[in-house]
Design brief:
Layout: E1 10-16, E2 19-25, H1 31-38, E3 57-60, E4 63-66, E5 79-81, H2 94-102, H3 111-123, H4 130-136, H5 148-159, H6 167-174, E6 197-198, H7 203-212, E7 217-219, H8 225-231, E8 240-242, E9 252-255, E10 258-262, H9 267-272, H10 274-279, H11 282-288, H12 293-296, H13 301-307, H14 315-320, E11 324-329, E12 332-337, E13 355-362, E14 367-374, E15 385-392, E16 402-409, E17 416-417, H15 419-425, H16 432-445, H17 456-475
Helix pairs in contact: 2-5, 3-5, 15-16, 16-17
Length: about 475
């Protein structure tokens, strides 16, 4: 006989398409389920459930997100826009009209989320060029149209007068509900167990709650945690500690020759930050390769590091730049260097009752950093292998490299430094023969495995070839 987990509910109040909604449900319930099952707003589709297809995209306070990855607790006090909120009193939004007139939809499954991705893009005010539009909708899978007509429709809508919140704004002003059915106030959650969510008011409060209940699992953007819960890998009986709203963990600044990134810095923050582009632009380059807009708006540098995946996108560049991790706990704050942060597979140096609060990257004069990621696609894929190469040059050394760092992902149980390969490059001037020796060294140094994404042989050869190419590029 299977034991039934107790359902602990919270009252969550927010707006959907301009209409106030009050929901009694566990805080860990997916926003997607609330919209589709509880409110009957089925324009938001259930696709992959992992943030890959974008079929469940909605706007949360105007930001494009995957509803399957957002826990209900994080919607409290916020505004949600679904495709049902685009029409205004029965009149189609200009985007919807453009999709209709230009054939931007066929089977219709992807169209609702595609419309919302387009709405988020047009709201930025960026020129509606084809490359910009294609990047904006890259997180929305469509198997029917080939995207051409969709791109044309978005470009046409972007050429017209700017639109605001569509039907949502009208609904807020008139009290009308865009969908014929009224919002639900009380939710029956018996169909899906979901964890309870504890929401601390400050970092101090979060640490106090962790000390009182070590079983709490921190959650930020939810891009890993919510997937694990949906897949049954994580137990819904373990409560979540929601740190998403802790402003103390949102910071991008330069202090004492260090770039300081709060643990809640998102990939989107890294891409947009003038501070990052001025201090260490390679971080923005790496962030651009992680998922699409929906993931970049939610995924955080702290979450990526804490997941401790061997394929973590940020890990190689943080290793190569000698980053330091600031960890807060019941006994104060401590600093752990990047090469000691991942002691084993899926493990970090963060102990019970502690939280990763910031990543500190030294800004070293004369340092150069290059990164490469090999996957099934240029972006939005898990790395088969990834490399970050850092080195310094000085005029008195006549172009010779020193302080060389070669950091690798997806070729060992943890992100690693290839120290023997570093020794081969140390003190050299980049040239074809140096590139060949480095490639040979890294091929012999690593011991990758076969898995569902790649073979060990491919990883070894790809790593060697990519490192060789980086050195050759540096040599001109």
């Amino acid at each position: 006989m299977t034991a039934t987990l107790p359902v602990i509910t919270d009252t969550i109040r927010f707006h959907v398409n301009g209409q106030p909604v009050e929901v009694d449900a566990p805080g860990g319930r997916r926003l997607l389920d609330v919209l589709r099952v509880d409110l009957g707003l089925t324009g938001t589709k259930e696709g992959c459930g992992e943030g890959e297809c974008g079929a469940c995209s909605v706007l949360l306070d105007g930001v494009l997100v995957n509803a399957c990855l957002v826990p209900l607790a994080q919607v409290d006090g916020r505004d949600v826009l679904t495709v049902e909120g685009l029409a205004d009193d029965g009149r189609l939004d200009p985007l919807q009209q453009a999709f209709l007139e230009l054939g931007g939809t066929q089977c219709g499954f992807c169209a609702p989320a595609m419309l919302l991705a387009a709405r988020a893009f047009l709201a930025t005010g960026h020129a509606a060029t084809e490359p910009a539009i294609r990047e904006a909708i890259a997180g929305n899978l469509c198997r029917c149209t080939g995207y051409t007509k969709i791109v044309e429709a978005i470009a046409a809508a972007g050429a017209g007068p700017p639109t605001v919140a569509g039907g949502a704004a009208a609904s807020a002003a008139t009290g009308a509900w865009p969908d014929p059915r009224p919002p639900a106030a009380v939710i029956d959650v018996a169909d899906r167990a979901a964890p309870r969510v504890v929401r601390p008011s400050s970092l101090y409060d979060a640490l106090a709650r962790l000390a009182a209940d070590p079983a709490l699992r921190p959650i930020a953007g939810g891009t890993d945690v919510m997937v694990e819960l949906a897949a049954g890998v994580a137990s819904p009986s373990r409560p979540l500690l929601d740190v998403w709203d802790l402003d103390e963990l949102r910071l991008i600044d330069v202090e004492h020759d260090e770039l300081i990134l709060g643990a809640l810095t998102t990939y989107g923050d890294l891409r947009r930050s003038a501070v990052v582009h001025g201090a260490l632009p390679v971080l923005a380059e790496v962030a651009a390769s992680v998922g699409a807009a929906q993931i970049q708006n939610r995924g955080t540098i702290g979450g990526n590091c804490m997941t401790a995946s061997p394929a973590a996108d940020m890990a190689p560049v943080l290793l190569a730049t000698d980053a330091r991790f600031e960890i807060a706990g019941p006994h104060g704050t401590r600093i752990v260097p990047a090469d000691a942060f991942w002691p084993g597979y899926r493990r970090t140096a963060v102990g019970p009752g502690e939280l990763l609060v910031a990543v500190r990257v030294p800004l070293v004069p004369g340092r150069h950093v290059r990164v490469r990621k090999v996957g099934t696609r240029r972006a939005q894929s898990i790395a088969k292998t990834s490399i970050a190469l850092a080195w310094r040059t000085a005029p008195e050394r006549h172009g010779a490299w020193h302080d060389v760092r070669v950091a690798l992902g997806s070729v060992a149980p943890t992100p690693i430094r290839a120290r023997r390969t570093e020794a081969v490059l140390e003190g050299t001037t980049p040239a074809p023969d140096v590139a060949d020796r480095a490639a040979h060294a890294v091929r012999d140094e690593i011991s990758p495995i076969d898995d569902v994404r790649s073979t060990a042989t491919y990883r070894r050869e790809a790593t060697a070839r990519v490192l060789r190419r980086i050195v050759l590029d540096a040599a001109g």
